[in-house]
């Protein structure tokens, strides 16, 4: 095990990431899985995108054979012919592999009663095959995903200085979903819910200007979200720790006014960004833009 560029240990293992499209889905999926082994260090990852022919697949498998002792082929192939060829080559070359989509598509074929079309999900317009080391941006995404998982609902506040952004807002405004979306872009986000009568954590005042972003929402929309949350918990017969009146319109209106006053008292905070009519991708674009302008 050696030290990587980011100071984290690098495992003496290699993953060939094989996709018949752009490789974005494969990278995201692998990054989520590698979070589970983050304490072991970072394996070397090489991306093979746009693999759509037998010749391309055979060539990369020959490269894998030369490194097969500590190598794993992690594929997201949907073409059944390429999928079958991968199995044959892996068996003949003694290369360990995972074709993630094959068992998923087999189950879906059975459920739909129809065969998958075998068409890659994205339109690939680059070179026929791109082979390169996945740089630190890939592992930044994996690290950001893990960071978000550990810093929802105000948890682990001692780590807030390491965050790229702290999302502050009322309960159910969408902070956690936005944080997860940002993590896919390598942004380390933490979340904090605020409410009348609850003191702000002192760690918040120690953060540099431009790191705290407020998310807001109109009262009517927030009431609907909270009612949906209550209904979902009741449907699942799950225990609820929500306070009485959580979705009461008068209470929510009071909280919205409280948040507006809080923002006025903290001009160093960014926003508020009104989430009421924004789709998640639009919200995250607005967040990214805000951070870029004030970073």
Can you describe this structure?
Keywords: Kinase, Nucleotide-binding, Serine/threonine-protein kinase, Transferase. GO terms for molecular function: ATP binding; protein serine/threonine kinase activity. Pfam families: Kinase-PPPase (PF03618). It comes from Zooxanthella nutricula. This is Pyruvate, phosphate dikinase regulatory protein. The radius of gyration is 23 Å and the shape is elongated. The longest helix has 17 residues. The N terminus is likely disordered. Helices cover about 40% and strands about 20% of the residues. Helix 2 runs parallel beside helix 3, helix 5 runs antiparallel to helix 6 and helix 6 crosses helix 9. It has 2 domains: about 130 residues, 3-Layer(aba) Sandwich (Rossmann fold); about 160 residues, Rossmann fold, CATH 3.40.50. The strands form 2 sheets. Strands 1, 2, 3, 4, 5 and 6 form a 6-stranded mixed sheet that branches. Strands 8-7-9-10 form a 4-stranded parallel sheet, sandwiched between helices. Strand 2, helix 1 and strand 3 form a beta-alpha-beta unit. The chain is built from 9 helices and 10 strands. The chain has about 300 residues and is of the alpha/beta class. The relative contact order is 0.11. It starts with a strand and ends with a helix.
